[in-house]
Structures are given as C-alpha cells and as structure tokens.
Amino acid sequence: MNNNLIIRRLTELGALFLIGDGIMGLIKPRWHSLLWHFGPQLVRAATEELADHPNTARAVYLAEAVIGVALASRQTSEVEEG
C-alpha cells in the first residue's frame, strides 16, 4: 500500500477524532471530562479540573474541534474532488 495513502488516512482519522471529541466536550463538558477520568494521576487531575470548570473545558474542547477542522481542511486540499 502506498505510504502516502496511509499517512492521509491516519491524518483524517486524527481529524475525525479531534472534531468529534471536541464537539462532545462542547455539548456536555463535565460529563465528557469525567468519562475519561482514568489512568495516571496527571490525566485524572486534568479531567477533574475540566469537570470542575466547564467554561474552561468548553474553550479547550472548542480549540480541539477547530484544530480538527483545520487539519481536515488542509488534508482535503491535497486530494482532487471527484
């Protein structure tokens, strides 16, 4: 398989994840943050902070979604639309 195709697919997958996760966090920031409350102490502390400060969490999740959209937009400009 073409290495460039694999990279494009992985980039698109990353963009999909960022957009979806960001939008889920915008809809329900506390619930979404606590959903990911597991793992190392640093990760648990970060999710607790986001859950305790929903407006800050929304800003983080909005930035995540914007990065995902920018990544997807950059990705699609390389491929001819059919």
Query: Between the first and last Cα atoms, what is the distance in angstroms?
Result: 21 Å
Parts with pLDDT < 50 across at least 5 consecutive residues:
none
**Largest sheet data:** none
Helix content: over 70%
The secondary-structure class comes to mainly alpha
> Mean of the pLDDT scores?
91
The quaternary organization reads as single chain
Strand content: under 5%
| Number of domain units | 1
Number of helices: 4
Q: Quick one: overall form?
A: elongated
In short:
The protein is mainly α. The protein has helices spanning 3-27, 29-35, 41-52, 54-76.
Layout of secondary structure:
Blueprint: H1 3-27, H2 29-35, H3 41-52, H4 54-76
Summarize this structure as a short list of keywords or feature phrases.
82 residues; mainly alpha; elongated
Structure description:
With 82 residues, the chain is mainly α. It has one domain (16-76). The chain has four helices and no strands. The radius of gyration is 15 Å and the shape is elongated. It starts with a helix and ends in a 6-residue tail after the last helix. The mean pLDDT is 91.
